[in-house]
TrEMBL record:
Protein name: MFS transporter
Location(s) in or outside the cell: Cell membrane
Highest rank taxon of the organism: Bacteria
Organism the protein comes from: Winogradskyella luteola
GO molecular function: transmembrane transporter activity
Organism phylogeny: Bacteria, Pseudomonadati, Bacteroidota, Flavobacteriia, Flavobacteriales
Keywords recorded for this protein, A-Z: Cell membrane, Membrane, Transmembrane, Transmembrane helix, Transport
Cellular component terms per the entry's GO annotation: plasma membrane
Length: 403
């Protein structure tokens, strides 16, 4: 037990203070993110939307995410990640507060579109911040620490949110979401200073650097498609899975929050030691990506059996293991592939892969559930994972050939 404790502590050593501050604001922000995991239930139970209407709201959620990710990459390369992060999160906080006052289908679609277009400019910026504030040796653990903070916050958030919904309803959650965005970015502005070197100054040292080189990188395109397929499967966790828990297994919001908390608890306890262990083994990044896709595929195929509640537990464990490998190592691959001075463009394309999945995953998933039922959706979702595994092997082969 003592050895396990020291191994856990060791996994945090060597990280910069800026990464710790980024983790702190991520914890504060995500602890307040209470609406998103329950958005499908809010739309269905509180606003009375149909399954088709819910799917379209998530389409606009995804479109906004794509716009925000693209815009965030452009702005990060133009003015730097620091300004993008501060402006984005502050305005996002105000938007979350305003969303509670919109109840019409069209109004909510537009409100979600605008909110996500602003909110997801933050994503490429924070990815570039990780590269700026970490070293090559501790980059994966830096990503892991931020994910730990985000997941700890997400564990606190949905668990409390389920209780608040049962006791007070949904409106309080929008206030908490908005105010924690503002508090988080205020902490960031106070604790972390803006870097002195701008992206344009970095690019001046690379006169022959073609600014759209990311779009001609076939290997990075393959990686982006893998991330898209991974997202197509994984984002079912926030759309069809809560409805499945509710409709098939008759779990209330608090019990659903407990299942989601299992996902977070495993990550908080085991992800950093796991990443620390794997980093010492010098295993190629692409092998971790292959394994993550295999685990994600299995987590959905197992849901085809719906007669035992234990399948929900097994599925969430497999999905969590997949997440613990998938997100840190796809992120690390993108950071290492990014050219100096154009990190924003590379990380925007990385973020857009998941943003596109935000568009299609809920729409396809909810439409399949509406027309054919949950079990068919789990087979289709598992199919995304199979395609991702095949492409991951191709990616691994190209990297071995230095392509």
């Amino acid at each position: 037990m003592k050895k396990l404790y020291f191994n856990y502590i060791e996994s945090f050593k060597g990280l910069t203070k800026e990464i710790w501050y980024l983790a702190l604001i991520s914890l504060v922000n995500r602890a307040g993110t209470m609406v998103i995991p329950f958005l499908s239930l809010y739309l269905k139970n509180d606003l009375g939307f149909t399954i088709n209407e819910i799917s379209w709201v998530f389409v606009f959620f995804g479109i906004g995410s794509v716009i925000g990710s693209w815009l965030g990459g452009k702005l990060t390369d133009a003015i730097g990640f620091y300004k993008v992060m501060v402006i984005s999160l502050f305005i996002t906080g105000l938007n979350f507060i305003a969303l509670q006052y919109i109840s019409s289908f069209l109004g909510l679609c537009i409100g979600i579109l605008i909110t996500m277009s602003i909110a997801d400019t933050f994503r490429p910026a924070i990815f570039v911040a990780i590269k700026a504030y970490s070293t090559q040796e501790n980059q994966t653990r830096s990503v892991g620490l931020l994910r730990l903070a985000i997941n700890a916050g997400m564990g606190i958030g949905p668990t409390l949110a389920g209780l608040f919904i049962v006791l007070k309803g949904y409106n309080l959650l929008f206030w908490i979401d908005g105010l924690t965005c503002i508090v988080a970015i205020s902490l960031f502005y106070y604790l972390v200073k803006s870097p002195t070197t701008t992206p344009s100054q970095t690019r001046e040292r690379y006169n022959n650097l073609y600014k759209n080189i990311v779009y001609k990188d076939l290997t990075f395109w393959i990686h982006s498609v893998i991330c898209f397929l991974f997202g197509m499967a994984f984002f079912q966790l926030f759309t069809t899975l809560p409805l499945y828990y509710d409709e098939i297994f008759h779990l209330n919001e608090f019990k659903i929050g407990i299942i989601l908390f299992m996902n977070v608890a495993i990550i908080v306890v085991f992800e950093m030691p796991l990443l620390n262990y794997l980093e010492k083994r010098l295993i190629p990044i692409t092998k971790h990506i292959i394994m993550s896709c295999l685990l994600l595929t299995a987590s959905f195929f197992i849901l085809y059996e719906n007669f035992w509640i234990g399948t929900l537990i097994i599925s969430i464990i497999l999905m969590t293991l997949s997440e613990m490998l998938g997100f840190p190592y796809t992120n690390k691959f993108a950071l290492q592939r990014a050219k100096e001075g154009l990190e924003g463009s590379y990380m925007a394309m990385y973020a857009m892969s998941f943003s596109l999945a935000h568009i299609f995953s809920p729409k396809f998933g909810l439409d399949i559930v509406d027309l054919y039922g949950y079990q068919v959706n789990w087979l289709v979702t598992g199919g995304y994972g199979v395609l991702a595994v095949i492409l991951s092997y191709w990616l691994h082969h190209r990297i071995k050939q230095n392509l």
